[in-house]
Each structure stands twice: as structure tokens, then as C-alpha cells.
Amino acid sequence: MNLLIINGSRNPLGQTASAAAALAEGAVNGGANLDVVFVPELKIERCRHCDMQGWGLCRSEKRCVIEDDFAALLERVRQADAVAFATPVYYSDLSESLRAFLDRLRRVAPHGDGIKDKPVIGICVAGGGGGGAPRCARNMEYILTTCGFDVVDVIPVRRQNLQAKLEVMRSTGKWLASN
Asked: Which end of the chain has the lower number of beta carbons within 10 A, N or C?
């Protein structure tokens, strides 16, 4: 099983990276092969809403006209057996870099197109008071469902419960790899 983890955090040593690493550890222990991407390191532009109706080739041809790293990352998503998205929580929502990727993804792959029913895990890690994690998790689940993924779990994490949730991530990764 090939698991692709897409991390929307800029900090490779932060709380979001720790949560994603725990998921990865469990998946590898369960026999998975691993591919990890930090979205902020890529060049992924926001959607341009190309035509007057707010669409473009994404609607008619299921591709984006913007020449950046989006198409290559989309291909990695399509090639993976399962995907995990990890994001820090900003203002009760996904990181801007992950949001840019997912906003374009849901335009080129609405309800499937190479990702239909692909198992996906979401991880939303909130610092500060942590109250935004549940809302971020709801937003992520909605977006991933719209894209056509089989949302297996979306895990809200607060800085206050991060240590406890790391074990949840390890177990989830191992379970995902074995299923």
C-alpha cells in the first residue's frame, strides 16, 4: 500500500508535522510505503476563476491552465493507494497553502476522476486554545467528500491533547495500511 501524506504546514518540526509523522510511523509499521509532501515548499497558485462563470478548463477538460506544481501533485494523489492531509489550523480553517491545493483539486476532480473512493485521512492541528480544530475538521471533511474521496477519518487535534492524539495517529496509520 502506498500512502501519500500532504502536509500544509511550513514547519517540518512543528505540531502538525509531529501528528503526520505519527500517522506515517503507524502506516510504515503496518507495511505501507510512504511519500510525504510539504505543500508550502511547492509553487501552487490560488484558483483564477478563469471565465466569466468562475470556471475554465477545469470544468470542461478536468485540468487546470495554471502552470505550477499542482498537476504533478495531483498525479501523485492519483497514484497513491491512500492519502492523508495534515494542516495546522489558522482561524478555524486549513492553512492557505493546503486550501489553495484543495480548492483547485475540487474543481478538476469533482466527485472522483482518479480519486473516487480513494481512502483519505484528515488531520487538523490547532495551537493556541485549540478551539478551531473541530471547525477545521468539518471544513476538511466537506472538501474531501466533494472531491470524491472515501473519508475514513478526520482527526481534530489541539496543542493540549497532542501527545494523546499521537497514539491515535499511529493506530490510524497502522489500521489504514492493513486495510
From this structure: C
